[in-house]
Amino acid sequence: MAKLPRSLHGRVVVVTGGGRGIGRAIASALADRGCRVAIGDLDSASAREAAAALGGDAVGLALDVTDRPGFTTFLDEVERRLGPIDVLDNNAGIMAVGPFDDEDDATVVRQLEINLHAVIHGTKEAVRRMKPRGTGHIVNVASSAGKTGVPHLATYCATKHGVVGLSEAVRAELRGTGVEIAVVMPGIVRTELTAGLAEPRGFKASTPEDVAERVVEALEFPRFDVYVPKSIGPTWSVLQVVPRRGREAIARALRIDRALLDADRDARAVYEARAAASAPGAEREREAV
């Protein structure tokens, strides 16, 4: 007998970085399943606009995920308005492209604070709220870069390896509690974040809607590893039995390294400028030291 999907109707869902791109697509897909959605985004106008587009009782609020007390207050406000959180999707993230030795400290701090530290904090907050109720689902958006190393993406890879490792460890701790966790590992997704990147040979870029569909599947039919597209999973498994030199040769043949090395800097300029202003909480903390 085929396994029936879990009903998501009425579930309270929080999506960070939900004002655009992957986060917005996830919020929309879950609202279509009958979820009560709260969107948090540093750009409060985009959060409100995205929530308004969903209709119903969707909520759009300002959220700086690097402001940890503010993140906690945001979750408190969501629960005040919609009820206990059933699903927390830690989606907010940024990506800086360039040679590792040219990357300044501020760029490193922003990526660590948004991509990793905020996910740690969000995951911890979710566990503290969900575990006493014996139910809940955490979705951490990492990247296929969290499983390998890509030139000109060193710090980003480090943060996404951290998200994968965090999720693995928390999954083990949550065993038997009723709280579940999934880690989402997309390849190249056509959003502002990947503007100007070339596609490796044999790999077609996904859309935000593709990622959203896989997230919905992971909630309806719980699974931990969520690859987008699905083919990344078996490809990764096969490559693990190949010696390192062989894996690196295959990556070069597929031009995976060139996707970042040949990035169109002009095409990325608008995104990079916005990303550079995306961690005010982290900047305030550094200034206070």
Mean pLDDT: 89
Report the β-strand fraction as a percent range: 5-15%
What global shape is seen? globular
Helix share bin: 40-55%
Distance between the termini: 60 Å
What is the H/E order?
A: EHEHEHEHEHEHEHHHHH
Task: Count every beta strand, where a strand is a DSSP E run of 2 or more residues.
Answer: 7
Structural class: alpha/beta
Q: What is Rg?
A: 18 Å
> Strands of the biggest beta sheet: in what spatial order?
3-2-1-4-5-6-7
Query: Low-confidence parts, pLDDT < 50 over ≥5 residues?
Result: none
Major sheet size, sense and barrel closure: 7 strands, parallel
- Total helical segments: 11
Describe the model.
The protein is an alpha/beta fold and 289 residues long. It is 49% helix and 13% strand. The chain has helices at 21-32, 44-54, 68-82, 105-130, 154-174, 208-220, 232-239, 244-253, 258-261, 265-276, 280-288; strands at residues 12-16, 36-41, 59-62, 87-90, 136-141, 179-186, 225-228. It has a 7-stranded parallel beta sheet with strand order 3-2-1-4-5-6-7, sandwiched between helices. Helix 1 (21-32) crosses helix 6.
Keyword list:
single chain, 289 residues, alpha/beta, 7-stranded parallel sheet
Summarize this entry quickly:
The protein has 289 residues and is an alpha/beta fold.
